[in-house]
Amino acid sequence: MALILTFLGKGGSGCSTVAIATAKKLALAGSRVLLVSQDLTPVLTTLLGTPVNSSPTEVASNLQVVSLQSAQLLSQGWEDVKDLEAKYLRSPTLKNVYGQELGILPGMDGALALNSLREYDKSGKYDVIIYDGDSALNTLRMFGIPEIFSWYVRRFRQIFTESDVGKALSPFVQPITSAILNVSWSADDLANTQANDILEAGKAALGDGQRVAAYLVTTEDELAIASAKYFWGGAQQVGLTVKGVILNQEQGNNPLAAEFDPLKVSNLPQRSGDNWQPLMDALPDFFGESQVPKPVTIDLAARQVKVFLPGFAKNQVKLTQYGPELTIEAGDQRRNIELPSPLAGQSVKGAKFQNHYLIVSL
Prior knowledge:
Shape: globular
Oligomer: single chain
Low-confidence stretches: none
Number of strands: 15
Order of helices and strands: EHEHEEHHEHHHHHHEHEEHEEEEEEE
């Protein structure tokens, strides 16, 4: 399993520069590194001084680079879907639809990129995978896919199972799968599909800061700092661990330590020509432990749920409770918190926003 790193910052703050410096540093230290870009502009090619292709290309010892092209990924994925259909269905229906005909719908590129990261990780060829997305917001949406899809599957499966339609159709699942597919599945078997396994594995990886982690990138510009704080809160909402801050093009004393406490802020000097060594030397230890607050802490004894939401003010956070879960809305993200059995079904008795924490009492 590889360590997956990404960098979040306002456009122009230097995320691609930091990603390249990180890739060079870790590759030079002996890690097998894959730098993945979803930015189709020539930025990465220009910074690296070599063309970036749609398949992993070695640009230095231990360092490969790849550019994700959504249309090509969709075509490849569609062929996989057709192979699965031909494997399981007695009468395949998709064989006359070709991946080259399909267009990219909004949101598809994130799902395709996330699946590519999963495939590269599963290959076992890399120790570190660095993802340089086209924007911080799209990167956050991408990493939030496993939790969001898992919620839809969990909630709608439960609703369908408990409905009259679900109860009426349940006895027919086995004979229908036997007639159409090459397998004999029950309704419970359909609920435990490979897709669900992939979603759960994605959620587990995202919740482990030693497997998937992000670093904020900012300059001293006021808007860049505000954006970095916002992305910090957004990362907490999707469960992505933010382990530190990289202050780009800064020398001398660190003026932002208090702004991002308790995260460690690393100063990065300005790059001069093709000399990447000063940047590489200034980067943090990406494999080290970090004392970062957990996104969600549940205290059963105190009957409290604490949600860490840096970068947001009280009026930007909304708490709602529908059914068995708490929903936290902050910025452009929603987080559904499934409560443990001792607290499940309990109504919210109070909530306050204090020191970047939303504290909910049940």
